Structures are given as C-alpha cells and as structure tokens.
Description:
Largest sheet: 4 strands, mixed
Structural class: alpha+beta
Strand content: 15-25%
CATH superfamily of the domain at 31-142: Glutaredoxin
CATH class of the domain at 31-142: Alpha Beta
Helix content: 10-25%
Number of strands: 6
Order of helices and strands: EEEHEHHEEH
Radius of gyration: 15 Å
Strand order of the largest sheet: 4-3-5-6
Distance between the termini: 18 Å
Amino acid sequence: MASDAASASVFDFEALALDGAPAPLAAHRGRVLLIVNTASACGFTPQFAGLETLWRELGPQGLTVLGFPCNQFGGQDPGTAEQIGAFCQTNYGVSFPMMAKVEVNGPGAHPLFVHLKRAAPGLLGTEGIKWNFTKFLVGRDGRVRKRYAPTDTPAAIRRDLDAALAEPRPAA
C-alpha cells in the first residue's frame, strides 16, 4: 500500500464486514464510495434513512455506501455486530454494506480512517473526526474527494455524488 496520502487509493485497504468476513475495498474498484462512521443511538442516526435512499437510487449508477459503526463518541454504538445489524435493518431498512465496528480516532484508529482523515482534513486542517456520521466521498479512482460534517445530510451532498458518478471510470 502506498504510504503517501496523495498517492494512496482507498481500494488498497481492507476492512471486516459486520459479520466478521474480510471485506477488501478493492471489491468496489471503479465505484464511487461514500464512507460513513455511524452510530445507532446518536442524534444523527436518522441519517441512515437518507443513506439508504442514496444507496437504492444511486447504487445502480455506481455508488456504494459503506457504514462503519463506531462507539468512540458518547458510547452511542455499544451493541454487538448482530445488534447493530438488526437495529439498522429493522429501523431504517439498511441494505448497504455495514462493516465491523471500528475506531476512527486515536492509536487504535482503523488504517482506512487514518488515510481518509489525512487525505481530507476537517475544518482548519484538523484530522480528528469530531462526531458520528462524518462522511467521506471517494471517486471511482479510489482518491478521497471530500469530507462532510455530521450535520451535512445525505440529501445535501447529492449534487457532489451525482458529479462524482458522472466522471468516467478509470482505465483498468
């Protein structure tokens, strides 16, 4: 994997699916990704509905939404993988891929989130993720395009997603 944030591709990383199975991001090569750190008991949790809408409407055009549960902010996702999956499906009909719970900040931060934060720093250049439902837009080429605050709703970023989806697929 490339060590330089400018040259590394998100497709170089691997995560675990919610069921614990390996989930290499390379499986999404050529697709636009919206990577979100999620939580089941947060004021922003209703954004699951908007994320699901984006997945259903834009998935056929090449968008993949990836949810990464995180319990680092106010202990708002303490459940097991089974509890998280059931909650998301029952309450919001989530069918987009959900990954295993991760840390997004600190020494235990998942390498993917270390990369995302370096490639798209937050306000005033800060890298730390401030809260649940921070979102990262990744182009078809695997490069991080933009970071969105938790207050940016899925509907509010639709124009950026449409623009990323309109870009040509990279040559193999």
